[in-house]
Amino acid sequence: MRQTRRWGMGVIGALLLVAFSAHAAQPQATRPVADMTGQVQQVPRQPRRIADLWFAHNELTIMLGAADRIAVTVDRPATRPWMFRVAPALYHAIGVNGPAVNAESLLQAGVDVAFVPNGSATAAALRAVGIPVLVAGFSDVATLRRSLDMTAQVIGTAQARDVAQSYEAMLDRVVHDTRARTDTLPPGSRPRVVHIQSLHPLRVDGRNTIIDEWLSIAGARNAADGVDGNMKPVSVEQIAAWNPDVLILGPDSGSFDPAADGGVWRNIAAVKAGRILHNPSGVFPWDRYGSEFPLQVAWAAQMLHPDLFASTNMVEQTRAFYREFFHYDLDAAQAGRILAGLPPLDDAIGTGPVTGTGAH
What we know:
Layout: H1 2-25, E1 30-34, E2 40-44, E3 50-52, H2 57-63, E4 70-73, H3 81-86, E5 94-95, H4 103-108, E6 113-116, H5 123-128, E7 133-135, H6 141-155, H7 158-182, E8 192-199, E9 202-204, H8 210-217, E10 221-222, E11 232-233, H9 236-242, E12 246-249, H10 269-272, E13 276-278, H11 293-304, H12 314-325, E14 328-329, H13 332-339, E15 352-353
Parallel strand pairs: 3-4, 3-6, 4-5, 6-7, 8-10, 8-12, 12-13
Antiparallel strand pairs: 1-2, 8-9, 9-11, 14-15
Helix pairs in contact: 6-7, 7-11, 12-13
């Protein structure tokens, strides 16, 4: 009897092994997609479990209707509360600390495609275990469009393609309409602005950044002379030497105290004039590398040139953007909190996701 049982189990095991081998031998349907570095990856035609390992890129995936496909994310509800409010499916994703993750853990999570930032040290390890990896980083409007198109191609749905097309048309319109007014400004009418990413430690954003681009479109000059790139450390004395007309504080910059650093801040023109602006923050900080870039342009233009953009209603623009691209109905109070860089209130639930529109 024992021998019969062993034989029976052996036959079943062999049949299961054959079935599994036959399934594994059949290649999953894929298509080639070139990432932002030009490297071509074979990605599943319908990836179901995405590892989104660049903080800014999760917003693009959500906007393209694939929030429920994000199986692993580097974003957290504590740091990006509006993201999780708009896309509650993220609560089901595995949260990881930073873009450097263990390749085996992604395999165990069933990940079939991963997005990573520029210069990711994880990409090679993930590819080595068979996970297609796409570098999704962008640095300006042109590469934002490319990254969005690449992401839509990976997601592979008509909805993703349609949203990307609609978004790019809106992006072009906002940039064109804003520049139509600000391009006529003489240099002396363009305020010199320092954008502060962090106060402690003190870091600013210089040229060759998306921050520098929206400043220019909005009719400003980046006062961080000689600084190239994002989040560059500087001293308060250096900012005082630049003596900007306006300071824009990033949403994650920390608390500003003009009496700090021996009161050096008080000698800066922007502080004397009270021109210290706190940047909005929604699904992702508007000032950085996310899809809310058009809202950032409109906000900055109005704040820097209120006479030129007196008719701009940022509350309504924010509500319209969230309805169209995140399928989420903000009320006026919620939009106001986003514009103030504040998280949602527990009772500020608005009407929630829009039903019947592929909400996510």
